[in-house]
Amino acid sequence: MFSFFKKKPVVPETPPAAAPAPTPTAPPAAVPPVAAPPAAELQPGSQPISAPVPAAEPLLAVEEPAPRQSWISRLKAGLSKTSANLSILFVGAKIDDDLYDELEAALLMADAGVDATQYLLDALKRKVKEDKLLDAAAVKAALRTLMIDLLTPLQRPFELGRHQPLVMMISGVNGAGKTTTIGKLAKHMQSHGQSVLLAAGDTFRAAAREQLMVWGQRNNVTVISQASGDPAAVSFDAVQSGKARGIDVVMVDTAGRLPTQLHLMEELKKVKRVIGKGMEGAPHETLLVIDGNTGQNALAQVKAFDDALQLTGLVITKLDGTAKGGVLAAIARVRPVPVYFIGIGEKIEDLQPFVAADFVEALLG
């Protein structure tokens, strides 16, 4: 889970007095200014690096760790539309064909997909028959167990410290929340003691570089960019700079694109090859950010990006307010790429590691 810590104010130490005396109190010592972090090193021929400028006021609130129950409550609220469509089916219901028909419709409406829906229904009918389940509550509990079993293979912890630096290539279509997710992931890495470097490789979308630089300021992280607009060159420079400076994690932002834009998908493949030239074995993580509202289109994105880049993980965003939370079941059946994180809002703490049991609890109510 995420870790957050409140910043404690700097208080000058006052030595204890030898004996009480009515002497006037001396003014507190001045606090020395905090030096700005050093600029990253560039390879020959690259453009200047945008170093972070510490803001006068903190741009991002740092909060205490949210209790696990608080996260589950927010997740339930985010998935309430999907949950309402599923949980209402079991209120006073009879165990008959009508219940199965309504459950099938609800799962399809939640974008679980035909394959996952049929799989769950067949397994549920077998379990009801074998265990001789007679009431709706028991059937709902059986469905909960089946869904947890289906989604658990997607649950995998994100491991830090495997490489120095750990290079992450992050992709996604426009509007999926890719750049915002990178900012949240950077804060997550920092909270676990990792130094982070960002590469502004999204040169296709207007103001994408500026948006990433804002997140760099918020997290006090250096952002490497080039005016030339060559994403492969930016990515290479970032990897080289990360190696030279002893950075723990290098995150490469790439241009958002539709999987049908074949020439742009080829450019993504080139970026990945160039990252590999910058460091053998890199990128160590190739992530796809998916908007949870896109339903079955999300599955098409996973297939296309996985075919092109061999994805190692997914981040599902914007699950709050959607009735399509069942898409994870479709992914589990058709293309079971691990889901590292899920997001239900704009706050830092609203991006959390995926836990199958928590997700199903929120989904079924």
Automatic annotation (TrEMBL):
Q: Which CDD domains does the UniProt entry name for this protein? A: FtsY (cd17874)
Name the family the entry cites.
Answer: Belongs to the GTP-binding SRP family. FtsY subfamily.
What sort of enzyme, by top EC class, is this?
Answer: hydrolase
Q: Which UniProt keywords apply?
A: Cell membrane, Cytoplasm, GTP-binding, Hydrolase, Membrane, Nucleotide-binding, Receptor
Instruction: Note the InterPro entries from the entry.
Output: AAA+_ATPase (IPR003593), P-loop_NTPase (IPR027417), Signal_recog_particl_SRP54_hlx (IPR013822), SR_rcpt_FtsY (IPR004390), SRP/SRP_N (IPR036225), SRP54_GTPase_dom (IPR000897), SRP54_N_sf (IPR042101)
Domain SRP54-type proteins GTP-binding residues, every copy: 338-351
**Which protein, by its recorded name, is this?**
Signal recognition particle receptor FtsY
Reaction it catalyzes: GTP + H2O = GDP + phosphate + H(+)
- Region: Disordered, residue numbers: 1-48
Q: What does this protein do?
A: Involved in targeting and insertion of nascent membrane proteins into the cytoplasmic membrane. Acts as a receptor for the complex formed by the signal recognition particle (SRP) and the ribosome-nascent chain (RNC). Interaction with SRP-RNC leads to the transfer of the RNC complex to the Sec translocase for insertion into the membrane, the hydrolysis of GTP by both Ffh and FtsY, and the dissociation of the SRP-FtsY complex into the individual components.
The molecular function terms of the Gene Ontology recorded here are: GTP binding; GTPase activity; signal recognition particle binding
Q: Where does this protein chiefly localize?
A: membrane
**Organism phylogeny:** Bacteria, Pseudomonadati, Pseudomonadota, Betaproteobacteria, Burkholderiales
Q: Indicate yes or no for the key word Cytoplasm.
A: yes
According to its UniProt entry, the protein's GO biological process terms are: SRP-dependent cotranslational protein targeting to membrane
Q: How does it assemble?
A: Part of the signal recognition particle protein translocation system, which is composed of SRP and FtsY. SRP is a ribonucleoprotein composed of Ffh and a 4.5S RNA molecule.
Q: What is its EC number?
A: 3.6.5.4
Stretches with biased composition (Pro residues): 12-36
